[in-house]
Amino acid sequence: MSRHLTRLALLTAAASVVLPFLAILSAALQPESNLTPRLEWPSDPHWENFATAWSSAGFASLLKSSAVIALGVVPLSLVLATLAGYGMATMELRVKGPLFALLMIGLALPYEAIVIPLYYDLRSIGLLNSYWSVILPLIGAFMPFGVFWMRSHFESLPKELTEAAQMDGASGRRVLTRVLLPTAWPALTTLGLLYFMWAWNHFLLALILIQDPAMRTAPSGLGKFVQQFGKNIPLLSAGTIIVITPIVLLYLFFQRHFVKGILAGAVK
Question: Major location, coarse class (predicted)?
Answer without folding.
Answer: membrane
